[in-house]
Amino acid sequence: MRAITLSKASHSLLRYYLIHVRSQPIFSTHFLYVRSFESQSIFLNTHHSKLTFNDSQLLTLLSNHRLSEARNLLDRMPQRSNHGRVIHLTSLISKFSRIGFVNEAKALFEIMPERNIVSYNAMLSSFINYGRIGEARMLFDEMPERNVVSWTSMLCGLLESGRVLEGKRFFGSMPEKNVVSWNSMIGGLIKNGDLDEARLIFDAMPVRNIISSNTMIYGYAENCRMKEARDLFEVMEDRNVVTWTSMIAGYCRAGEVNEGYCLFCRMPERNIVSWTAMIGGFTWNGFYEEALLLFLEMTNYEIRPNTETFVSLAYACAGMGFPCLGKQLHAQVIVAGLEYDDYDGRLSRSLIQMYSIFGITDFAYYIFNKNLNNSSVQSCNAMITGYVRTGQLEKAQYVFDISPIRDKISWTSMIDGYLSIGQVFQASNLFNNMPEKDAVAWTTMISGYVQNELFIEATALFLEMRAQGVFPLNATYSVLLGASGATANLDMGRQIHCMLEKTRYEFDLILENSLISMYAKCGLIDDAYNIFSTMVSRDLISWNSMIMGFSHHGLANETLRVFEAMLESGCHPNSITFLGILSACSHVGLISKALELFKSMSDIYRVEPGLEHYVSIVNLLGRAGRVKEAEEFVRSLPFEPDRAILGALLGVCGLSETGAEIAKHAARKLLELDPMNAPAHVVLCNIYAARGLHIAEQKLRKEMGLKGVRKAPGCSWIQLNGRVHVFKSGDKLHQQADEVFLLLFGISDKSCKSISPRL
User: Domain boundary residue among 495, 514, 537?
Assistant: First the structure.
């Protein structure tokens, strides 16, 4: 249940926009296709256009280290008083620094015929703003006189560069402090993570202003200490838009979105930063619909969104899963010209991520390629993930190869991509070449082995993971427990369980569910139920795992009891729940109960029956000998029966004396759909043989030979003394075959060579 409560009318409004988005775009522009992007023109004003001719000429001379000519130019400049000249040149120092010419500003400072304290402060600020703290400190020490501005500038420089201890000593030695000095000290301590020390300075301030409180609130909000931030917020006599916005951003960062939204609604004044903070708060906490609704509300106030707003909206559109919204958003960005103001690359990264999630990889790659020189590892990873998700492994590999920086996510995404399409060799090569492997990478590789049924390799890799000193994740154990259940490898499952008991103080829900499933599949249903009964909390997977476990063991009454307890707990069943129940009823012949539950699926629980549920009902009726009803059930289906349903009907026909004709009809339709279906041929042959229809049986077997239809042999395995022994139907290759046949039939393998296994 979401904490955010918006009006029903607002929700309806957004749904209306989402439904009609193609004809009524929520962004105030028509969609512009990507091919039109290149038509955008960039108009940039040069820095020199802001300088006079003489100033530009002076800058050029200083840049070329022609200091003698620069001094002559200063002498030839229009006559000013000494004071006026100092003011002019000091202004030039600040101008040169603002546009990045710090060395030129330094050269000008050095050739100035006369300087005052403002000149020194201007040069000091230039050094500090560009991180040249050593030069700033030397200049500070050389200054003939200093004022509070000088001291405060130097203090900011020390704290900005992380020299906190020196900054504290410097602050203590200041002969004069004003409120700016105190605020600078507080802000510097907060930036360097010393929030408690900053509070002590704040409490010791002789005089505070609104910036003092805002700085302190910002520090608390950045560190998610919202109780302290709220206490300070409540006692403030004057609050401005910065105060409110810091509180809203802090609550959203701490996950308390409802509190943030309540403050947002109370704000007496909002600007674009406030709106963007709330939109971003909704987005980063997964409330994508609310973020878009708030954007719609913002447009009513004619507030122009900024780059940060669009970043949040891009992720919100991706979260909603509506490509049309995302395309309109991108069009708005282009029309507003914001793609050229994306100095930190966050906007392009958000658009690449959005298009990759949509699977529109061409658009994503267009943006990625256009910003290739400034591409970040996040953009590369988004492209790789998008290509992997859409099955374009070659393109994903290309981006991976050209990426200037690869992190663990890059490598793991590629490994997972190859594993998902069964290319284990390529995935293994990537994994072996991965420079630094974390637990996620190891788990991805182990999971890939399991998905590709390479269980021995998965176990070996897990042992290697432990030997390398990498601590397994819960997901690692969960994957291995799933493999143990799939292969009925009880010894391995128990070993993993014991390992968990030694290394985990408490199990999470995923591990408990995995243990239930493993023990149930390995035949220890009581152990599975013991874990289930001691669970503190259960989800749908927990209930379904226990229901399926009881069902597979033919324990119908226990299955139904767990189902009733599930309903009482308020957990809503799904299709897997009903599959387990119907299967359990089928095992013990509870026909009426099964049909009642089958009807309740759609009537009561709004769960649409799937193919497997129809097959379960066919098996239920057939096992009860009611083959005719099973045939009528198949004929009454709202769709044309496919191979699975016809195969199920054919399979139960052999259990009835009157099923031969039904079997013929079912087999004929099944072979029309799948002429090479071996089980259909075999079942029909066995039915003919059981009814004494040997001519029909021989004819069908001959057809099988001509068509090359072969039945895959049945396979069983047993684990003994840590070794798995596999047996196939008619297999005499096992080294202890003589002993097996002697024990079973009282005959040796040699005597069995003349015995041909039946199909």
Answer: 537
Tokens of 494: 């128990």
Structural domain boundaries, residue 736: 715-752
The residue type of 172 is G
pLDDT tens, position by position, 485-524: 888 888 889 999 998 888 876 788 989 999 999 999 998 9
Structure tokens given for 500: 């968990």
User: Residue 481: inside a domain, yes or no?
Assistant: yes
CB count within 10 Å of CB 605 equals: 16
Is 164 in contact with 184 (CB distance < 8 Å)? no
- Rounded to 5 degrees, what are φ and ψ at 723? -120, 140
Burial of 444 (0-12, 13-18, 19+ CB in 10 A): buried
Q: What string of DSSP letters covers 28-69?
A: SS----GGGGGG-------GGGGS-HHHHHHHHHHHTT-HHH
- Cβ-in-10-Å burial (0-12, 13-18, 19+) of 510 comes to middle
- Whether 510 maps to a domain, the answer reads yes
DSSP-derived letter for residue 399 is H
Residues 338 and 310 sit within 8 Å (Cβ to Cβ): yes
User: How crowded is residue 498: how many other Cβ atoms within 10 Å of its Cβ?
Assistant: 10
- Six-digit token pair at 574? 């799904």
Beta-bridge partners for 719: 724
Alpha carbons within 13 angstroms on the beta-carbon side of residue 244 total: 21
Look at the chain and report how many structural domains it folds into.
2
In a domain, 505, yes or no: yes
Tokens of 517: 């499933």
Stretches where the chain sits below pLDDT 70 are: 1-50, 78-80, 505, 654-658, 660, 708-738, 740-759
Among positive and negative, which fits the CA dihedral 363, 365, 367, 369? negative
- Domain assignment present for 337: no
- Structural element, H or E, at residue 108: helix 102-111
pTM of the model: 0.70
The residue from 501, 521, 537 where one domain ends is 537
Q: What separation in angstroms does the CA of 74 have from each of 70, 169, 485?
A: 6, 41, 87
